[in-house]
Amino acid sequence: MISWHRAAMISAFFFSTCFLVGYLTYHAQFGSQKFSGTGLARQIYFSILIPHSILAVVMLPMIFLTFKRALAGDHIRHRAIARWTLPVWLFVSVTGVVIYLMLY
Q1: From CA 48, how far away is CA 96, in angstroms rounded?
Q2: How far apart, in whole angstroms, are the C-alpha atoms of residue 50 and residue 46?
Q3: Does pTM top 0.90 for this prediction?
Q4: What is the pLDDT of residue 73?
């Protein structure tokens, strides 16, 4: 079970890193898409975008610390932070897709 968990988390880390590199590269070259919605749609969009952006920055050190503790075999402290890292990571992932769908 631990080996499956390790493989799944390393895969998630790898693909998230690939996405982040691609995302940053794309936006460095082409800029950002402006949201064209108005009224309630605009309010909803920004109410999703703002926590998404803040938590995307906050989660990076959390992810590295979670991985460091896991690789060091410090499983008690790993679990303590992973309980926070996973929901933040999932929130950022899901809201990123929602933001994309709202933009395009």
Answers
A1: 9
A2: 6
A3: no
A4: 92
Nearest to 12 by CA among 90, 104, 78: 90
CA angle at 23 for the pair 90 and 34, rounded to the nearest 5°: 95
Residues 57-70 have pLDDT tens digits of 999 999 999 999 99
Phi, psi of 30 (to 5 degrees): -115, -5
Domain ranges, ordered by start, for the chain: 2-103
Q: Which residues of 28-66 are buried (b: 16+ CB within 10 A; e: fewer)?
A: eeeeeeeeeeeeeeeeebeebbeebeebbeebeebbeeb
Q: CB–CB of 70/6 below 8 Å? A: yes
With a cut of 70, list the residues of the chain below it in pLDDT: none
